[in-house]
Each structure stands twice: as structure tokens, then as C-alpha cells.
Amino acid sequence: MSISTNEKKNKDISLIEGYSEVASASEMPVSVVLPFEVKKGEEYYIEDIGKIAKKPFYSFFKRLFDILFSLFALSLLIVPFIIVAIIIKCSSKGSVFYTQERLGYKGKKFKIIKFRSMHIDAEKDGVRWSDGENDKRIYKFGMFLRKTRIDELPQLFCCLIGTMSLIGPRPERECFYVEFEKYIHGFSQRQRVKPGITGLAQVSGGYDLKPQEKVLLDIEYIKKRSIWLDIKIMFKTIGVIFNHKGAK
Known about the structure:
By secondary structure, this protein is α/β, with parallel strands linked by helices. It has helices at about 5-20, 55-75, 80-90, 140-150, 155-160, 175-180, 210-225, 225-245, and strands at about 30-35, 45, 95-105, 110-115, 125-130, 165, 185, 195-200.
């Protein structure tokens, strides 16, 4: 798909205005490092999905399930959380938890919480998109946390208070939205629904997928979202945890 310069400009503005407040260059980090090469002139145009259906019954059931599941899971995970916290403190310098500002539904900023899987100086050379298991910033036990997705479990608190859902597109940092919109036009449409702890992209490749591949799966989820699809993603997530597929 190709469009003229003027059309491209108008399309980019319309996509961003509806879903996110994109910060000015002065508000962005000094540098954003990507572990893959973006070639000069490389551009992708994501389908404009327009106004999505509200689906009130699905939304009500999804929120109710988020609350009940989060309460149940957190009650069971108290002891495992304590054990993980002790191992993290013994295996790497720094705090047990890692909080970071992300963009959620309609571009609203919120704090995401995870078990820390990287060294405390992970971004000394600039903000960097994760390179999966090849990322040298991850310490040894942190690699185990990532492969098993245990590092994501504290996000159940975000799910409980409503800033996240169990299923949905993974939330990204504002600087990455700005960076990706430069060549993936329409990337911000991921913000049309609440972000999730796991999602279609995570069970279909995870860290192996580049942003232009992930967003296609996220758009597919947004268009087809249903109780049945969420159930399938939940079961696939369990498979990822045990066989590590897509967790690289």
C-alpha cells in the first residue's frame, strides 16, 4: 500500500489524535536503541480499523473475570512471590520490582509493575527495545523469570485496579509509540482497547516478533475480540509458560 506525502501526513495525524497524546521531541528520551535495523525508506501502513464495536456484554464479562481471576491468583501467589523476591535480592543488585510508565487505553499513562529481570543499569546507553534471550542486560535468574513469564505476574495488580486486562495488546512506552509511528503508520491503534498481560502476539511469537509483526496480530485481536478468543489465548499462554515458545 502506498499513499502520497500529503495523504501520509493526514493519515498519521488522524491515527494519533484519536488514541494517544504524542509527546514533543523535547519530552522524549535522548536516544531510543532498537536491536534490529530499520532500513531507510522502510514503511508499513496498518489497516485503519475505524470505530470498533463496544460489545457491552463482552466488556462486562471481561472486566468481571479480570477482577475475580486477579484476586484468586494473587491469593495463591503470595508465598511464591516472597520466594521469587528473595532470589532476586540474592542474585542481582537492585529492587525486587520494576515499575515503568506505559501508555494504556486511549493513550492514558499508567505505571506497569514487574519483577525486575534486568540489571539496574540496563538503559545507561539509552532506551532500548528488548532483544529477547539475546539481551545481555538480563541477569541469570532474570532469564528464567522471562522464559516462564513469572516476571509479568505482578501486573495482576494492574489488572485488578483496571489499568490493564488479562488479555490485550502489550502496553508500550510513549517513546516507542513515537519511534514506531515514524515507519509503522497506524501503530497507535493498539490503544483502542485496554492493554493486557498476555495477548495474541505474545502467544504467536512473543519477543521474536518485530513491532510491524506484533501490531498486525494486535489489530486482528481488536477486530475479533470475544470471550472465546480470550479463552483460547489464556490456554495458549499456559502452553507458552511450559514450553517457552514465543518467550525468547
